[in-house]
Design goal:
With 576 residues, this protein is α/β, with parallel strands linked by helices. The protein has three domains: 172 residues, Rossmann fold (3-Layer(aba) Sandwich), CATH 3.40.50; 165 residues, Rossmann fold (3-Layer(aba) Sandwich), CATH 3.40.50.1220; 201 residues, Rossmann fold (3-Layer(aba) Sandwich). The chain starts with 10 loop residues before the first strand and ends with a helix.
Length: 576
């Protein structure tokens, strides 16, 4: 139950804004300073003992950091940028937050009220730009005109970002409003309302489970807690249901669990895809069932799947959006344990299906050696040597396929999330996300895996890590750059559709080791598989953050194929 707002004396609205953030439990804000919110920057100085402003080197990196913060905490990460260019740069993080269902609040400085609608310097109508709605960038966009209503807007922003399907909110803050005085009291911390499904529908779900012989569960989405993950694990054990994790949500269910069947996303294990198609009941829990998880809406037939579908999701607007469920249960992820309590099987369930699904997953971890740099060995070595609870981050690119296939993510307990990756496919995410993770949890190691093209989109944030002493505590900060001199994913598509006609995908790269050292990082080049483990050991023992530069043959495309094989297959196909 929220407490009444306490009285406040008159102060700048920029100071009141910072007080409102503190009241919501915010202790870190990521951003790039701008003249449009000088009064708020002064508020961060005033309250520097309670909240820090992490000055980043580009707004896209700042927004990625805030998004990662939201994933890790379950409460909105906060990013503060200036108008115009600042907001457009930060929009990439807003898009990731929307598609990944991550609570995030983007605060944007705005032109003064007396300059509005004149196309003033860097003026943008943010309601139009971020376009809230089903396919917009944000759940809600507001502009605060009165300093006295600022606490109201902040509280609404936090509630909206967390309620139902979590997502991003954008607040535009005119600079003259921030510089005005207000005595408006700060409002109490808000908490999302938990949705619980209709008990009668839950009983119908139980009856479907009783009749099912080949059920399969797909889990994913943000907002899981260690308790809700454990509750679902017990439910899956009771019913002996094989479980797959949605694209880039592999840490929701322990990958070493006897019921784990693998990740349901790009490069899916063919045997897992067959298992899903042949199931007689699909249980989708917390997941959106988007394009990547459903193989372009083909793994499950759209709009009505061949088998019964039970969809459990916190957002009412998500239920039935694409797939028409047999049963739809609106349920917050934190309330899953309560919802499934009492959904017990009438008799013990046979364990054969789960055991076989997990055996097929383990068999898919085996692969033929690739030299001189075997990324499967690299990923397995990281897993073996990294401290327990390490957080793995990545952006977009074929290199991520090795991480997704060969790393076995632990469940959310006890350390919390261990995977940060954009299901929106945004390049440049991994490095800022790892920095944000290490700043939030200095005792936990954060490891970013980045392609060469991916790294150079936000690599300047190494300077942010240095400035804020990231990686200097008990938890290490490590960036592994996989360098094959090409935009590998696009080159793969080129070889498939236009074989031997390379255009626009070749890269000329800097010396990543020297670049990292210029930022104050330890750095080392690794050119062969056998060199990686000793290099990793030195990185984990070294003081401060470290970058490892891995040289990969350009022909290596994915864990399942090479560029040469793709080209030859395409040429042969074109001749027929």
């Amino acid at each position: 139950m929220s407490s009444p707002a306490s009285a406040a004396s008159a102060r700048l609205a920029g100071h009141a804004l910072v007080e409102a953030l503190v009241a919501q439990g915010v202790d870190t804000v990521f951003g790039v300073p701008g003249e449009s919110f000088l009064a708020a920057l002064d508020g961060f100085h005033e309250h520097r003992e309670r909240i820090r402003f992490v000055a980043c080197r580009q707004e896209g990196g700042a927004a990625f950091m805030a998004e990662a913060h939201g994933k890790l905490t379950g409460r909105p990460g906060v990013c503060f940028v200036t108008r115009g260019p600042g907001a457009t740069n930060a929009s990439i993080g807003v898009h990731v937050a929307f598609q990944d269902s991550t609570p995030l609040i983007l605060l944007v400085g705005q032109v003064a009220a007396d300059q509005r609608d004149r196309e003033a310097f860097q003026e943008i109508d943010y309601r139009q730009m971020f376009g809230p709605g089903t396919l917009g960038l944000a759940k809600w966009v507001g502009e605060v005109q009165s300093p006295d209503r600022l606490p109201e807007y902040v509280a609404r922003a936090f509630r909206t970002a967390m309620q139902g399907r979590p997502g991003p909110v954008v607040l535009a803050l005119p600079e003259d409003m921030l510089s005005a005085e207000t005595a408006a009291p700060v409002l109490a911390r808000v908490e999302p309302v938990q949705a619980h499904p209709d008990p009668h529908v839950v009983e119908q779900f139980r009856q479907l489970l009783i009749k099912s012989e080949r059920p399969f569960a797909i889990v994913g989405g943000s907002g899981w807690t260690a308790d809700s993950a454990a509750d679902f694990e017990r439910f899956a054990e009771d019913w002996e249901i094989p479980v797959g994790c949605a694209f880039r949500f592999q840490d929701v269910f322990d990958n070493r669990h006897r019921l784990y069947a693998g990740d349901v996303g790009i490069g899916i294990n063919p045997k897992l895809a067959q298992r899903i198609r042949e199931s007689d009941l699909i249980l989708a829990v917390g997941v959106r069932l988007g394009e990547m998880t459903t193989g372009g809406y083909t793994l499950l037939e759209a709009p009505v799947p061949r088998q019964p579908l039970v969809h459990i999701h916190p957002g009412a607007e998500e239920l039935g959006r694409v797939y028409q469920p047999t049963l739809a249960l609106q349920c917050s992820r934190a309330a899953i344990g309560c919802a499934l309590e009492g959904v017990d099987p009438p008799t013990p369930r046979p364990a054969a299906a789960g055991a076989q699904a997990h055996a097929e997953y383990l068999a898919n971890l085996a692969t033929a050696p690739v030299e001189p740099m075997d990324l499967a060995v690299v990923v397995k070595t990281l897993e073996a040597r990294a401290p327990a609870g390490a957080i793995y981050t990545n952006g977009a690119g074929n290199y991520a396929g090795w991480l997704h296939r060969f790393h076995q993510y632990t469940s959310l307990q006890p350390a919390g999330r261990t995977q940060l990756a954009p299901s929106a496919g945004a390049m440049g995410y991994g490095v800022p996300a790892a920095i944000a993770a290490n700043l939030l949890f200095p005792h936990r190691t954060a490891i970013a895996i980045a392609g060469d093209g991916d790294f150079l989109m936000t690599g300047q944030e190494l300077a942010t890590a240095t400035a804020h002493a990231a990686g200097q505590g008990a938890g290490k900060l490590l960036v592994v750059v996989v360098d094959n001199g090409t935009y590998g994913t696009i080159r793969m598509h080129q070889e498939r559709d236009f074989p031997a006609r390379v255009s626009g995908t070749a890269l000329t790269n800097p010396d990543f080791v020297q670049l990292a050292r210029a930022y104050g990082w330890q750095a080392e080049r690794v050119e062969a598989t056998a060199q990686f483990e000793p290099a990793l050991a030195r990185a984990l023992d070294a003081p401060g953050p470290t970058l490892l530069h891995l040289l990969l043959p350009q022909d290596v495309s994915t864990p399942r194929t090479t560029l040469t094989a793709l080209r030859e297959a395409a040429l042969a196909r074109n001749k027929r």
